[in-house]
Write the structure tokens for this entry.
Amino acid sequence: MAKYKEQARILGQERLAGDIYSLWIGTAAAHSAAAGQFMALYCRDGGRLLPRPISICDIDREKTALRLVYRIAGKGTAEFSQLREGDRIDVMGALGNGFPLEGKRPVLVGGGIGIPPMLALAKALTESGKERPVIVLGYRSAELFLAEELRELGEVVIATDDGSAGIKGTVVDAMKARGIGGDVLYACGPRPMLAGVRDYAKARGIRCYVSMEERMACGIGACLGCVCQTAAVDQHTNVRNARVCKDGPVFLAEEVEL
């Protein structure tokens, strides 16, 4: 399906925790969107021309709606937090590739703002008949978000940096403490977390997919602003590069350098 800019209607918005917001938009992209893809949202301020990429958190095909959960990280996302029901916003998507629904015993790992895509993924895995997943979530503190919704879909394990909830430490510390295993592992979060999850999966022979977080500009692969290094050389360009927005954001962990 061709990707084009459209005006989406704001269906509702709420603050989940701290600077984390949940935004529902009415968009035709909901018909074809998949877990792991993202939407590009445009600011009204003409001084901020480039869209902001936000991962898809939930998909309601019947209502033709998508849920986007984001953290205020600058003036653009601060503008989004002021949107109210009935407002309009220019969007493009759904962009990028999604998570392949493989294996039978999935493990989902999300850290920080990498947690929202895990909700859409957990629902997609459930609908495809997989076993109830183990879902490992990493937060800075006990100010949790989406944990209760994810508990309805799988066994949730919490890790916090300060130990105020769940296991003190990283998501990898939590997985080691619980001896978590499966046949496929999906992860989204900051790059150091992804590297740790990749190593954990490799040591246990678990197939691992990672969703990369990069600064994106155009969102369609034209500007090369979100290039990451790959393990193999691209046969067409003879370089070890991939565009996260176009070739990803989901990659096999062994395909990219973390």
The first strand starts at residue 5 and ends at 17.
